[in-house]
Request: fold
Amino acid sequence: MKKKTGIIITIIIISMILIVAGIFAFLYFATDIFKSNEQLFWKYASNSSQLAKMITNENKTEQKNWKATHSYTAKGDLSIAVTKETGTQTIKLGTTEKYNQNTRRNYADITLYNGEAEHLKASYINSEDIYAIYCKDIYEPYYIGFRNSDLKQFIEKLGIPNTENIGIPDAISFGRSKNVPKLPPSISEEEKYLSDTYFNMLLNSIPEERYTKTEKESITINNQSYETVGYQLDLSGEEIKQIIVNLLSKAKDDEQLINYLSLKVFSDFDKESIQKIIDGMITGVQQIQNPVDKISFVAYQPKKGITKIRIKDNRIAEIVIDIDDSKENKKNVDISFNSSESENAQMQTVMQVEMEKQILDSMIIYTTNIVDNKSGYQLVMNTSLGNVMEDKIENNSKITIFDNDTTIETSYYKTIQVANEEVDIQELTNTSAVVVNNYPREQLENFFEGLGRRIEQIIPEKVEQLNIQVTNEQDGLYYLQGIISSIFTIMNVNGIPQPISTTGMFIMANLNQSMLTTNNTIQNGQQTPNQIMQQEIELFNQRFEIYKGEDVNGTIVKTLITNVVTNNTSSEENDKIVKVRLDGNRTKKPNNWNEQGEDDTTKLTQLKDNIDAGMKYSVTIEYNTKGFVEIITITEI
Reply:
């Protein structure tokens, strides 16, 4: 009896242990109890991956697969309307497209109308590896194009040296490479290795005490209020710089990552080219001067699918991202930028970006609203991509800008229809098109010089005939916004991810407001010609002054010389030609080197190749009488 009692007690104890362990396991994995501040911060912050659901457009994938397996024709109507107090002026354009699945040839054209009459037309054909354009008013006989092969050889023929160093591929991949498989629906072992490796490296770079828990506070997400706590990470600007440099340095020598990038991201680049890109990124981060003292990241998740992330530095700037992924057929992301406390008027902004994705039975609709609360500038973008229905697709996009008392509206509507008969698209060959790869440099220079003169003559004539009234710089900005918006409406209709076009339009909105601020400052007499000239000098000199100092790494010196070469190649003003002087005997100097300062780009390129990345140098700068950088002295240490 005692033996049975002992067995029963043992079973009860084991059962209790299992129950308690199960409760603890449930509380740990299904709730936030027992998790550290670090674990909860990254749990909540990782929900920003919900942004990927805004990028993913299921209809775009469906349309892409359909177009790859069908011959089709397409027609589009594009309009740009600028409405001011004096009335509305409208520019109308039309587009057509054709694709022949059997020949794999593509054709597209765009026509500018003056009233109902065709005013100017340009077309494009891709036939095999030849990509060409045609405009009867500019060059009537033939299409003008290039062959997408042996590009290094072609570039060198044009007189551009060292194509190996600037990473030019032999051919450019337009779209997905045929040799690159589509990403699997679930993460691969290779991607898991990369994710684990670099995420763990990031985690190990941050001391545990940098993670804290906030007090309970009231937050608002998508017009709903929540009482919740947040989890915070504080890092200094220098720490962030060092973390990024460490990650990039690891990436540069990571064979598995380099192979992954060459396969999935940089399909046109070899290993050395990718490593050079990463090297340039490392140098760029290292050159950041005076980073902020502290940046705080706070993540909140009051309920499943609802996330707020706040990023704020100790100076002026704050970014807040609200994500609502709680509904199956509707996704919302709001992003606000606030730098209103900046001492620089041009840096002050209070902007709000609201993005919404609706998934309907017949289409997916994106709506983006960008508002500058400081100036009242507002931009609204609507895009819908339809399902393939009865071998037909309908897409449209509209962008409306409210700027002062002016409204700029661009819209593009496009239908794609399966072709019921053979689609006829011209074949391009060496005899039916001007393929620039086939001609020597001298001939091409004369050809494009004549072409340029013809463009300078025709385009102003065509614009003038449209009778568009541009009375001042402000009007010019309105029409410029309309042109840029029209480009994005076309890109939207063709399936560009909405966050990308939103970013582009956000940048345009910021640039527009910056230009207005600058114009108003000048018009109000707050900026004299001397001040404008001084700004030009400062901007020019900054390109080189960031490299000044003692104990400068050879890799950074190489980048400096590259910047000098780029400057001297593009500059048309003698005052802005920069010379390099080298003091020391260990670095080999090119033949006929000018010891007083050399500006020949070929010799400077040779010197860059001779600079030892492992050596240290001192960099000093001398200025000309106008204040521009004139001579950069590089001294061996």
Q: What stands out?
A: The radius of gyration is 30 Å. Residues 2-30 form the longest helix (29 residues). The chain is about 35% helix and 30% strand.
